[in-house]
Specification:
It is built from 14 helices and 18 strands. It is 28% helix and 16% strand. The strands form five sheets. An eight-stranded mixed sheet has the order 7-6-10-3-11-12-4-13, with helices on both faces. By secondary structure, the protein is of the alpha/beta class. α4 runs parallel beside α11.
């Protein structure tokens, strides 16, 4: 074969470019419809715990490989910072009010509706989903799926098969999800066809149960407190009424795991179920570490101040979260290594993201839900296939409703008019951003009253400002200048000097509600 003839990996099979009828591969002529897509999504992984975004806390070398070989989005946002709704937005390319799954408490995803996997399936793609689903109804539009019930379990988890059988698997969930994903790519698919594989991890979801080999990891590390750890929520009524405060609401037994053998009766049934899935050997390893830590804690807890206890909880939270993340990073590396070893990287778009961000002590919190930056934002990195030249940072505003049209566009599938997101391909084809791109994003959170008691709210974010309206049993507004106040501590709403900015943002918010056809505009009209 001529050494100058490029080999193109079509669905994992080596094909000469000339055999595809392509003498060269300019950006405008990449072989649409022949790229594979590997979409890796974690739960509650936040950008500040990913070293290509923030090097203060942990190192994530395998996640960083994706960014180093591709692009890192610096303004990546969700439409509704909650697990199930976020997944529904990704699958449909629509905001929550359009796809019908607005909250976890009462939501059941309507699997009969149009979804991106179904459209890809019709276009000849093989579709597979492995891991966390969290949409109540069974997956549709997938040639293969193998999901965990509800949130799933870290230790020796159950999986639901396409026959609706529930099968208990031995091992650590993050490893098993990766095993199953690699096995499907190697043995479960037709290698003559392109595919999209959704690898959905439970990590880094509460209550952060580590893999046994990492039980002692990070125990010698002291994490710096966020600058606003002791936020007093002045001028922000809704922020002061939540129930996600580390010092006040993080449970000493369930979350922090500080219990002695005689305290077993005080453990929640859910926690007992989770740790009860361990083998005897695993239980002995687990107890050796956490019983020791518990003894050390209770030996000095009586003299701890309120602040001392909050800071102790913060350190334990950060360490356990980081342990769970370490296993996740290992497994992302396994997927990248498989694609590399099978010569599939040049023909595969690899996407890594999370269903939303998370608070790692900012404002004194854990969890998500609020439209403040740490949960509104989500990490997003992509390793691009051959034919896409963009590298480094992408600073344009993107949202998780954009994933569906992006994958359809990459596959050469027409994007239905009712999809509300935008294809990201124009951002990936060259060195510069397109002149016409969104200047703002819309957000709407619905789940109240519910766990953590975060008020319902909607809002608009631009490159510099953010306007939020908390509504329902409250009627308050918040305005932030993200340039001068990135920690969102100073609510500027109502200040005379901000009148012009406020009017502009209210107009933009109203425009977005009309553009996305959110019915809330009828109940809470913006003047």
């Amino acid at each position: 074969m001529n050494k100058n003839v490029k080999i193109w990996q079509v669905a994992g099979c080596a094909v000469p470019v000339t055999a595809l009828g392509l003498a060269s591969l300019p950006m405008q002529a990449q072989p649409q419809g022949r790229y594979n897509i590997v979409y890796i999504m974690t739960d509650d992984h936040t950008a500040q715990m990913m070293s290509c975004y923030d090097r203060r806390f942990v190192e994530t070398p395998n996640l960083d490989r994706i960014a180093n070989d591709g692009v890192r989005f610096t303004q990546s946002f969700v439409a509704n910072s909650l697990s199930g709704p976020s997944r529904a937005c990704m699958l449909t390319g629509k905001h929550s009010h359009k796809n019908g799954f607005t909250n976890n408490e009462h939501g059941i995803f309507d699997g009969s509706q149009q979804t991106m996997p179904k459209l890809l399936q019709k276009a000849g793609y093989q579709t597979a989903l492995i891991g966390k689903w969290h949409l109540v109804s069974r997956p549709t539009g997938f040639d293969h799926w193998n999901i965990v019930p509800g949130q799933g379990d870290y230790y020796n988890p159950d999986f639901i098969t396409m026959n609706n059988d529930t099968v208990r698997e031995e091992g650590y969930l993050t490893n098993i999800v990766t095993d199953k994903s690699i096995d499907w790519m190697e043995n479960g698919r037709d290698k003559s066809k392109p595919f999209i594989l959704f690898i959905h991890h439970k990590a880094c979801h509460r209550n952060w149960l580590p893999e046994m080999k990492y039980l002692n990891e990070y125990e010698d590390k002291t994490f710096a407190l966020p600058a606003n750890f002791y936020d007093d929520y002045e001028g922000r009524q809704a922020a002061g009424t939540q129930e996600m405060h580390i010092g006040r609401d993080m449970d000493m037994l369930y979350d922090i795991k500080m219990y002695l053998p005689g305290m077993t009766s005080r453990l929640s049934p859910n926690y007992l179920r989770m740790i009860g899935r361990m083998t005897l050997v695993e239980m002995l390893q687990y107890d050796e570490v956490y019983n020791r830590l518990s003894r050390e804690f209770y030996a000095k807890s009586a003299t701890m101040s309120e602040r001392g206890l909050a800071e102790f909880k913060y350190q334990r939270y950060m360490r356990d979260y980081a342990k769970v993340l370490k296993s996740l990073d290992d497994n992302v590396g396994r997927v990248l290594d498989y694609l590399r070893d099978k010569n599939m990287l040049d023909s595969t778009l690899v996407v890594y993201t999370s269903d939303q961000g998370f608070y790692m002590g900012e404002h004194g919190w854990f969890d998500k839900r609020f439209m403040y930056e740490q949960s509104l934002s989500t990490p997003l990195v992509m390793r691009l296939p051959d034919g896409f030249n963009r590298r480094g940072e992408v600073n344009d505003m993107v949202q998780n409703i954009d994933y569906a049209p992006t994958f359809l566009d990459l596959a050469g599938v027409e994007i239905p008019e009712d999809i509300q997101g935008q294809s990201l391909l124009p951002l990936l084809r060259g060195k510069s951003s397109p002149k016409k791109w969104r200047k703002s994003i819309y957000y709407h959170f619905y789940e109240y009253p519910a766990e953590h008691m975060v008020k319902r709210h909607y809002g608009v974010r631009t490159n510099r400002y953010k306007l939020i309206h908390f509504y329902n049993d409250i009627d308050t507004w918040e305005l932030y200048d993200l340039q001068t106040d990135p920690n969102e501590m100073n609510n500027l709403y109502g200040r005379p000097e901000m009148d012009k900015v406020t009017r502009t943002l209210r107009k933009e918010l109203k425009k977005l509600q009309e553009q996305y056809d959110d019915p809330i505009r009828q109940k809470w009209p913006i003047e």
